[in-house]
Amino acid sequence: xxxxxxxxxYPNAVQQAALARAFGCARVVSNDAVRAREDARRAGRPxxxxxxxxxxxxxxxxxxxxxAWLGEVSAVVLQQSLRDxxxxxxxxxxxxxxxxxGPKLGPPRLKSRKDHRQSVRFTANARWKITVAGRLDLxxxxxxxxxxxRTLPATPTSVTVVRDAASRFFASFVIDTDPAADQARMPxxxxxxxxxxxxxxxxxxxxxxxxxxxxxxRRAEKKLKKAQRELSRKQKGSKNRAxxxxxxxxxxxxxxxxxxxxHHRLSTKLISEDQGIAVEDLSVAGLARTRLAKxxxxxxxxxxxxxxxxxxxxxxxxxxxxxxxxxxSQTCSTCGAKDGPKPLHVRxxxxxxxxxxxxxxxxxxxxxxxxxxxxxSACGAPVRPEPVLAQREETGxxxxxxxxxxA
Length: 407
Prior knowledge:
Elements: E1 2-10, H1 13-43, H2 50-59, H3 75-96, E2 118-123, E3 129-130, E4 136-138, E5 142-147, E6 158-163, E7 169-176, H4 179-185, E8 192-197, E9 201-205, E10 210-212, H5 216-232, H6 239-273, E11 276-280, H7 284-287, H8 293-299, H9 301-314, E12 318-322, E13 348-350, E14 357-359, H10 360-371
Parallel strand pairs: 8-11, 11-12
Antiparallel strand pairs: 1-5, 1-7, 2-6, 3-4, 4-5, 6-7, 8-9, 9-10, 13-14
């Protein structure tokens, strides 16, 4: 399985300037490729091939006075920029003819130097390496200091250097993991669980465990509001406005990092303890158009479920998504009787058929587990679910969240 491992970089001033040149050159080559293809489309000519673009926009361009500075960076960075533009066009055409799943994609757009996120990729033929001292040695950039939060399980096939909106630098390594080692890391278990995601509690499990919602954005709202107000008062184009923008970006990055860490801790805990996991397929985009939009985005359900998906595939677990129209909050988990819809403020209800008093979220988690076939259904027939494929890469730590769930 192919995953990404991210680590923080600390380049010095000279290395930051070299990375800025690499970002700029890669951006220019990408924009030149988009313009070349758009010009060919308007003129009714066939799109130039990748080889033609490489020769014209890199090899020949370096010999001109206007593009001679392209030789100051590694040629691999420029080639990868062309490949990324070509991949964007292929994805766009696949989206048009319906062979690509997911939402429709638009055509590639020109990149701006004002974009706060920049990146370049180095493949194996760029001859980058990790030195004995633990630094990342990049061509025409130098040996950059790395904060190693964990060891790499295998030799990386490529590395992407990223500068985010908060002006932090990261190295993202592509790793091919060993399935046998992954299976040994998390042995099989006979435990299953259903998960009901919500806002009052981030998750309620079918065994009765309730995991509180951290509400990272809500807790940081006062600080974010102050930073945003200071930014709005600065004159556009001034250095003070750039400093204020960086302050806002760092505040948002802190919230996003805390949320991602919480998701990784909880998802790893669930994957390590349970062989089968059932979760409801929520319409996050639809809920984000309601008055609860800020709370929905703050919870980050989609990111959490994506982590469960790829970790389940990596470690041989089973993840099942139940239908979003399944009446999990209306059905009695004891007798299976459907008791009708209930407003959100009703957190407990009594079944009219059997008299069982239900906690709304715990009852929904039990029904999600049953609907997925991980538990015995109301009619007594267990169902064997199919495993899902991984969709996202793994980053972050493998700690465990605080909670009252029994091990």
